[in-house]
C-alpha cells in the first residue's frame, strides 16, 4: 500500500457485480501518533527521563494495536462464566475466563503496569510513566486496567499500612514483573445497603482467637476482578456474630482486612459465589455477588479506621478512572480522525466537511483538556508519594492539592469521555452503532467511570468535604495563580490576556460560592454541588491549557486555551473578553477547527494519524 489512501475498495457480489466497499478506520502506533501526549510529556518530564522511557512507550504503543487489541477482543467475545457445581453435584463456584484474559494479565505484569510505580526508578515521575502505559493499554485490553488499578491500590495500601509479613511477602507479589509470581487484587466494599455509603455495611470480622487472624462473614454485592488472588475488604469488628457484641455502628466501626481468596489447592476459601453480574459494559471483567463464610483475613491498619485507611486505595483507583476516561477520548478521536479520510459523503471526504470537522474539533478539545489534567494529577501523586516538592511548595500543599484535584479530575473526565464516545458512534454513522464495529464497547466501558469509585454526585459532595480544610482552596487558587502569573509575563499576547481575565473571573465566582456555603447555606451547597465541581474542574483545566500554551509558544495551543474558556467558563456566549462567538464564527475559528480536527503538521500542513502506513515507523497501520 502507498502511504496515502487512494485505492478504490470494491466488493464483488454473487451476481458478479461490483459494489462499493467502505474501508474501515486504521490505527497506527498509539504513542507515536498521539501528538498531544508527546508534547505533554516533553513539558512535564525532564529530558533524560523522557529519553529513557521513550523506546518502551514506542514499542508498547505498537503492541496495543496488535496482539493486545486482539486479546482484548477475544476476552470481550468470551466473557466469564460461573460453574457452581461439578458433575457430581459438589459446589465448586468456579469462574472460567478466556485464556486471552490470563494472557493480558501476564502482559500487564511483564510490562510493569503496576511495578513501575513502585520501583520508582524515576522518582516522582515514575507515576506518569506507569500511568501513560496504562493509558495506552486501557482501551485495547477489555478493561484489564480495572484489576490493575485495584492491584495498584492494594500495593499502596500495604506499603502504607501493612505489617511486616505483608510487606515482605504479599506486597512483592503485587509489584512483581514475573507472571508466575504476580498477583492481582480485588477491592470489596459495596454491599446491598449501599455502595458509596459504606456506613451500613453488614460484613463482620471476628477474632479467630489468636489476635491476628479474623474470620469474615457477609454478603458483598459488587466484587470486581473476582478471579484475583487476593482482596481488600471492609468489615465491621464484632465479638459475637449472634449478639453483635462489640459492634460500633456507622463507618467508625469498620476496618480493612486483607484476604486470600483460595486455598493452596485452588479452591475458594470459605467463599460462595452466588452470581456473576450481567453488566452494561466491562463484560470481560469478572464481577460477582458473593458471600464470605468465615473467610480468614488479616487487619490492615488500625481497628475502626477502615474508611480513612482504604482511602489510600481510592486515591489510586480514582486516578485510574481518569486514565481510562482520557484513554477512551483519545481512542475515539483517533478512530474518527482516520475515518474522516476514508469516508465520502455527498461527493467529498468527511475531512473536507466543515461541520464534521467542527464536531471532531470539539472532541479533540475535550481530550486535550483531559490529558493535561491526567498528567497533572499523576505528577501530584508522584510528588506526594516521594516527598518531593517544587520551588515555593511544601509537602502539605502538594498533599492537599492532590486531595481536591483527584475527585475533580475523576468526576469531570468521566463525563467528558461518555460524551466523546457517544459522538464517536454518531461520527461513524450506522456502522458505529453496530457491536462488531467495536465502537459501542468503548462507550459501554467508559460509562462505568462515572459510577465506579463514587458517582458524580458523591464525588461532588466529596469536593465540599475537602474544602473543610481552609488551606485546600488556598492551594487550589495558588496553583492556578502561579500559571496565570507565568502567562502574564509573556509580552504582547492578547489571547493570553483574555484567558487570564476569564480564569480570574471564574476564580471570583468559585470564591463567592464558597463564601455563601460557609455562611451556613448547606442546602445551596448540596443542590449545586455538581455544578460547582464542574466549575472548579473547568477552571483548573483552563489554567493547565494556558500553562501548556505558554510552554509550547504555539498559537494553536493559545487558541485552544481561549476556546476552552469561551465554551466552558463563558458558556459559549459573546463576552467583552472574547473575540470569538458561535453566532459570529469567523475564518479564524474555522481554521482552528481544521487544525484541531485533523492534527495538521505545522511545517507541512499534512494531517497526522491517518494514511495506510505510519510515516514515522514505516509500519502498516492496523485495521480497527
TrEMBL record:
Cofactor: FAD
InterPro entries: ACDH-11_C, Acyl-CoA_dehydrogenase-like, Acyl-CoA_DH_CS, Acyl-CoA_Oxase/DH_mid-dom, AcylCo_DH-like_C, AcylCo_DH/oxidase_C, AcylCoA_DH/oxidase_NM_dom_sf, AidB_N
Ranges where the Adaptive response protein AidB N-terminal domain occurs: 29-159
Superkingdom of the source species: Eukaryota
Residue ranges constituting the Acyl-CoA dehydrogenase/oxidase C-terminal domain according to the UniProt record: 304-466
Membership in a protein family: Belongs to the acyl-CoA dehydrogenase family.
Protein name: Acyl-CoA dehydrogenase
Amino acid at each position: 500500500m502507498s502511504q496515502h489512501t487512494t485505492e478504490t475498495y470494491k466488493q464483488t457480489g454473487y451476481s458478479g457485480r461490483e459494489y462499493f466497499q467502505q474501508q474501515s478506520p486504521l490505527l497506527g502506533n498509539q504513542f507515536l501518533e498521539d501528538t498531544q501526549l508527546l508534547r505533554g510529556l516533553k513539558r512535564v518530564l525532564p529530558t533524560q527521563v523522557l529519553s529513557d522511557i521513550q523506546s518502551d512507550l514506542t514499542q508498547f504503543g505498537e503492541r496495543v494495536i496488535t496482539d493486545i487489541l486482539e486479546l482484548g477482543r477475544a476476552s470481550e467475545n468470551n466473557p466469564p462464566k460461573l460453574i457452581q457445581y461439578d458433575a457430581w453435584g459438589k459446589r465448586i463456584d468456579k469462574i472460567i475466563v478466556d485464556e486471552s484474559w490470563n494472557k493480558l494479565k501476564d502482559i500487564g505484569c511483564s510490562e510493569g503496569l503496576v511495578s513501575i510505580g513502585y520501583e520508582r526508578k524515576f522518582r516522582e515521575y515514575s507515576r506518569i510513566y506507569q500511568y501513560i502505559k496504562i493509558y495506552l493499554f486501557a482501551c485495547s485490553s477489555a478493561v484489564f486496567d480495572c484489576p490493575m488499578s485495584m492491584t495498584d491500590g492494594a500495593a499502596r495500601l500495604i506499603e502504607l499500612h501493612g505489617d511486616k509479613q505483608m510487606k515482605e511477602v504479599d506486597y512483592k507479589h503485587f509489584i512483581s514483573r514475573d507472571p508466575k509470581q504476580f498477583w492481582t487484587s480485588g477491592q470489596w466494599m459495596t454491599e446491598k445497603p449501599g455502595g458509596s455509603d459504606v456506613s451500613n455495611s453488614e460484613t463482620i470480622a471476628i477474632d479467630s482467637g489468636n489476635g491476628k487472624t479474623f474470620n469474615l462473614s457477609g454478603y458483598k454485592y459488587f466484587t470486581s476482578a473476582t478471579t484475583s488472588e487476593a482482596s481488600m475488604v471492609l468489615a465491621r469488628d464484632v465479638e459475637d456474630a449472634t449478639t453483635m457484641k462489640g459492634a460500633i455502628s456507622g463507618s467508625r466501626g469498620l476496618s480493612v482486612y486483607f484476604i486470600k481468596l483460595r486455598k493452596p489447592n485452588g479452591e475458594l476459601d470459605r467463599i460462595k459465589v452466588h452470581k456473576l453480574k450481567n453488566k452494561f459494559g466491562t463484560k470481560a471483567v469478572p464481577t460477582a455477588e458473593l458471600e464470605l463464610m468465615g473467610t480468614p483475613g488479616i487487619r490492615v491498619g488500625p481497628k475502626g479506621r477502615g474508611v480513612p485507611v482504604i482511602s489510600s486505595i481510592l486515591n489510586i483507583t480514582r486516578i485510574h478512572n481518569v486514565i481510562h476516561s482520557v484513554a477512551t477520548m483519545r481512542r475515539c478521536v483517533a478512530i474518527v480522525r482516520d475515518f474522516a479520510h476514508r469516508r465520502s459523503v455527498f461527493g467529498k471526504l468527511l475531512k473536507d466537511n466543515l461541520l464534521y470537522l467542527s464536531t471532531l474539533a470539539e472532541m479533540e478539545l475535550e481530550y486535550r483538556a483531559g490529558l493535561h489534567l491526567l498528567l497533572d494529577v499523576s505528577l501530584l501523586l508522584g510528588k506526594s508519594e516521594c516527598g518531593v516538592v517544587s520551588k515555593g511548595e511544601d509537602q502539605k500543599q502538594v498533599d492537599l492539592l492532590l486531595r481536591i484535584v483527584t475527585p475533580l479530575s475523576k468526576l469531570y473526565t468521566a463525563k467528558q469521555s461518555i460524551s466523546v464516545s457517544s459522538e464517536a458512534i454518531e461520527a461513524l454513522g450506522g456502522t458505529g452503532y453496530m457491536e462488531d464495529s467495536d465502537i459501542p464497547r468503548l462507550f459501554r466501558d467508559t460509562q462505568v467511570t462515572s459510577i465506579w469509585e463514587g458517582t458524580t454526585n458523591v464525588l461532588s459532595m466529596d469536593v465540599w468535604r475537602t474544602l473543610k480544610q481552609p488551606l485546600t482552596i488556598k492551594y487550589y487558587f495558588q496553583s492556578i495563580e502561579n500559571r496565570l502569573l507565568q502567562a502574564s509575563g509573556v509580552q504582547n499576547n492578547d489571547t493570553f490576556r483574555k484567558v487570564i481575565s476569564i480564569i480570574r473571573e471564574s476564580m471570583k465566582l468559585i470564591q463567592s460560592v464558597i463564601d455563601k456555603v460557609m455562611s451556613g447555606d448547606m442546602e445551596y451547597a448540596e443542590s449545586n454541588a455538581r455544578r460547582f465541581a464542574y466549575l472548579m474542574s473547568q477552571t483548573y483545566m483552563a489554567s493547565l491549557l494556558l500553562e501548556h500554551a505558554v510552554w509550547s509558544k504555539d498559537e494553536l495551543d493559545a487558541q485552544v486555551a481561549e476556546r476552552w474558556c469561551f465554551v466552558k467558563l463563558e458558556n459559549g456566549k459573546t463576552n467583552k473578553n472574547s473575540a470569538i462567538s458561535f453566532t459570529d464564527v469567523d475564518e479564524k475559528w474555522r481554521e482552528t477547527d481544521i487544525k484541531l480536527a485533523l492534527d495538521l503538521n505545522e511545517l507541512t500542513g499534512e494531517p497526522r494519524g491517518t494514511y495506510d502506513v505510519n510515516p514515522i515507523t514505516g509500519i502498516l497501520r492496523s485495521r480497527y
